[in-house]
Amino acid sequence: MRISCRNQLPWLGAAALAVNAATNHATRVYVLGGIMLFFPLADPFWKPPALLRSRRHVLGWIAIALPAAALLSWRPAYAGYTAAMVLTAALPEEWFFRAYFMTRMGSGWSANVLASLLFACMHGLTWGWMAAVLVFLPSLFYGWLYQRSRDVVLLVLVHGLSNLVFMMLLFHPVNRWLTRHSL
């Protein structure tokens, strides 16, 4: 029986992410970002998604950017966090987990669930297992949205907006609840 390199490359990228996520070194965030951004480009069996620029897509981007702008005008101290988070988290994560890994796994719910489990595991290895639980359902939504739209820009913006909403409005209440109910 011959194992095809074609089907194993996404798993090699996932393994590289897992090894780096499980280690605690000063450059971990940079290494993870680099793997997520550049590993897909080294896969000769994957074609990067096209940058969609139809009127519908641009209107979708604006529809996501407007609430983010409103939140940032309300709390401008989050502007630096938002820019850094979009560039170092939302962009590489959506590029790797949805545009690359999920599409290489196939189509439909099984590919989405697989990519979401991997996404949650990477968050668990990096930030703790409660983070894995908290990101699994949003990851399923991101996967569904990508399968419907094939729009990476929209996905990065939605991911960025959801992280901004979580940090601005939900982080402290969730943290207090978890502290009171920890085992």
Order of helices and strands: HHHHHHH
Query: Helical stretch count?
Result: 7
Report the major sheet: none
**Multimerization state:** single chain
Query: Which residues form runs of ≥5 with pLDDT under 50?
Result: none
- How much of the residues is beta strand, in percent? under 5%
The geometry reads as globular
Walk me through the structure.
The protein has 183 residues and is an all-alpha fold. The chain has one domain (5-180). It has helices at 5-22, 28-38, 55-74, 79-105, 109-127, 129-149, 152-180. The longest helix has 29 residues, at 152-180. The protein is globular. The model has no long low-confidence stretch (mean pLDDT 92).
Short descriptors:
mainly alpha; globular
Give a concise summary.
The protein has 183 residues and is mainly α.
Write the layout of secondary structure elements.
Layout: H1 5-22, H2 28-38, H3 55-74, H4 79-105, H5 109-127, H6 129-149, H7 152-180
